[in-house]
Write a structure and sequence with these properties.
mainly alpha, 2 strands, two-stranded antiparallel sheet, 71 residues, single chain, 2 helices
Length: 71
């Protein structure tokens, strides 16, 4: 208890955008990132099947700019 409030233990928590396990490992964070990236890669592959190459290049360049706006 802290200040009369019951504190529950959990195996992992999200703190400032990063998942940290109760043993201070990054395994949950890495797994969640891996899941997100696999989903996005799946979506990109689905888009790739229906678009001409010129449109794919435009999509790629716009996505790259969103990731690295300082370039």
């Amino acid at each position: 208890k802290i200040g009369g409030v019951e504190i529950k233990e959990s195996t992992s928590e999200k703190l400032l955008g990063a998942w940290i396990n109760n043993d201070l490992s990054w395994s949950t964070h890495i797994k969640k990132l891996e899941d997100q990236l696999n989903y996005r890669l799946y979506k990109l592959r689905r888009i790739e099947q229906g678009l001409p190459r010129s449109s794919l290049i435009k999509v790629h360049s716009r996505c790259y700019f969103l990731l690295y706006p300082e370039i």
